[in-house]
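Field log, afternoon session.

UNIT: design team B
ACTIVITY: writing a sequence onto a fixed backbone
BACKBONE:
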């Protein structure tokens, strides 16, 4: 009889401990892959700083030459990081003569922040 009571109380305890099933706010596989690629691009401190520099620049755009000095990196290294951010869809590139200007893709930062904050808590 004790076994039955313990078994019943165990079932109740298990039911109380289980988290609710994922709701409509859970990511789909495609969304998870897209977000992972974007966050992977931001996983490097230099790229995170580049995004910060570009988003806070006058006119919301920056040239490679504007980014090199604050990072204390060479032009090829900065260009490599910029390419990763462009490929991830976080920055866009516009060529003007011999210079390339970078700007934050509209909605990219909002997309990332929305992914971090569940809809219920907004």
């Amino acid at each position: 009889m004790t076994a039955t009571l313990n078994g019943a109380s165990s079932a109740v305890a298990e039911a109380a401990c289980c988290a609710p099933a994922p709701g409509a706010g859970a990511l789909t596989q495609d969304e998870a892959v897209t977000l992972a690629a974007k966050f992977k691009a931001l996983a490097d401190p230099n790229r995170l700083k580049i995004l910060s520099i570009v988003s806070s620049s006058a006119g919301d755009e920056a040239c490679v030459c504007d980014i090199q000095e604050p990072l204390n990196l060479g032009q090829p290294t900065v260009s490599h990081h910029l390419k990763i951010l462009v490929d991830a869809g976080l920055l866009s590139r516009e060529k003007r003569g011999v210079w390339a200007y970078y700007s934050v893709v509209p909605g990219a930062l909002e997309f990332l922040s929305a992914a971090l904050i569940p809809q219920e808590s907004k």
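LOG NOTE: The first strand starts at residue 61 and ends at 63.
NEXT ACTIVITY: expression trials, pending approval
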